[in-house]
Amino acid sequence: MAIELLKDATLKTAKAEAKPVRMNDGGGLYLLIQPSGAKWWRLDYSIGGKRKTLSLGVYPAVPLTTARKRAVDARQLVADATDPSNVRREAKREQNKALDAERRIESGEPPLGSFEEVAREWFAKQSPTWAASHADKIIARLENDVFPWLGGKAIAEISAPDVLSVLRRIEGRGTNDTAHRASGNISQIMRYGIATGRAERDPVPDLRGALPPLRHDNFASITEPAQVAELMRAMDAFSGTFVVKSALLLAPRLFVRPGELRKAEWAGFDFDKAEWRYFVTKTKKDHSVPLASQAVAMLRELHALTGHGRYVFPGRDPRKPMSEAAVNAALRRMGYDTKTEITGHGFRAMARTILHEELGVKPEVIEHQLAHKVPDALGTAYNRTKFLKERKVMMQQWADYLDKLRAGAEVIPLQPAA
Question: C-alpha angle 19/22/24, rounded to 5°?
Answer without folding.
Answer: 170
